[in-house]
């Protein structure tokens, strides 16, 4: 499952790691498990204190004298830059104090959970007396440290559990696109899941970015028939009414209908600035959902389904197909507001 990691910048401070060989081994394991070469990356990295963490860590890496350790750290931070998630500043400026950064991460965890908060050994010795779930970099060699962190995972057939497993994307994405054929406005379909996902995404702490949400689903068949416009309008009204019930004043969701959909995806990302100064969507995460829970599933016992993170090339392809401004082929698009 996708997990969020927060590090004290001292992980990259050469001065606090007496055994350089062990430190290099730990850095190698961190990079290999967090950013595997042959699978989607199962982690996102907390950019603590309003985005200051990454620059602080970069400054520490520049000072590393051990060339092998410096290259390992540079690679980790280069990859981390592609999966950073914003964490607002909550305490006093930590400076270069490892313990202060750890406390900032612990406080931020209280707002929205962070799966792993990792400190250097000296800071861990202090922070572990204040917080039971703080982890030491010494633990990265242990298999248990990586338990549950994977690009593929079994998923229960419960709406609440499935939406909770996507909470990271609901909290940290600046845009989020749910794509599934079976949102019809209620009944035995996936509308309830969509509404729960919308509510989770909109119910994020006020300090976090306000998200854009899109719901992509399948419209009526036989578009050449004489009654197609009326049937299309019925679908739009039914789905729009259900979505509107999940919105508070000022909130909105974009609805897109396609003539035919086969897969279920959740695609999420952030906005970046292009070379000409414009804002553009940048996909960061995608989830392929083999099955999505329905209301009736909550009353039954079913074996788990399988969900997986999309590898980078597939994520890019699906993003281009559905989520860029020039995407074509849909039969309806509208904005639903409360």
Written account of the structure:
The protein has helices at residues 20-34, 48-62, 67-80, 98-111, 121-127, 159-165, 167-172, 191-202, 228-244, 312-322, and strands at residues 3-7, 43-47, 84-86, 116-119, 135-136, 152-155, 175-179, 212-218, 252-258, 265-273, 279-289, 305-309, 332-337. Helix 2 packs antiparallel against helix 3 (67-80) and helix 4 packs across helix 5. The longest helix is centred in the last third of the chain and has 17 residues, at 228-244. It has an 8-stranded mixed sheet with strand order 6-12-11-10-7-8-9-13, sandwiched between helices. Strand 4 (116-119), helix 5 and strand 5 form a beta-alpha-beta unit. The protein contains 10 helices and 13 strands. The model has no long low-confidence stretch (mean pLDDT 95). The chain is elongated, with a radius of gyration of 22 Å. The chain folds into 2 domains: 3-146, Rossmann fold; 152-337, 2-Layer Sandwich (Endonuclease, Chain A). With 338 residues, the protein is an alpha/beta fold.
Secondary structure class reads: alpha/beta
User: Total domains, how many?
Assistant: 2
Distance between the amino and carboxyl termini: 33 Å
CATH class of the largest domain: Alpha Beta
| Annotated CATH architecture of the largest domain | 2-Layer Sandwich
Report on the biggest sheet: 8 strands, mixed
Q: How much of the polypeptide forms β-strand, as a percent range?
A: 15-25%
**Poorly predicted runs:** none
Percent of residues in helical segments?
25-40%
Spatial shape: elongated
Order of helices and strands: EHEHHEHEHEEHHEHEHEEEEHE
Adjacency order of strands in the biggest sheet: 6-12-11-10-7-8-9-13
Return the CATH topology of the largest domain: Endonuclease, Chain A
Round the Cα radius of gyration to an integer and report it: 22 Å
Count of distinct strands: 13
Q: How many DSSP H or I helices?
A: 10
What is the mean predicted local confidence, pLDDT? 95
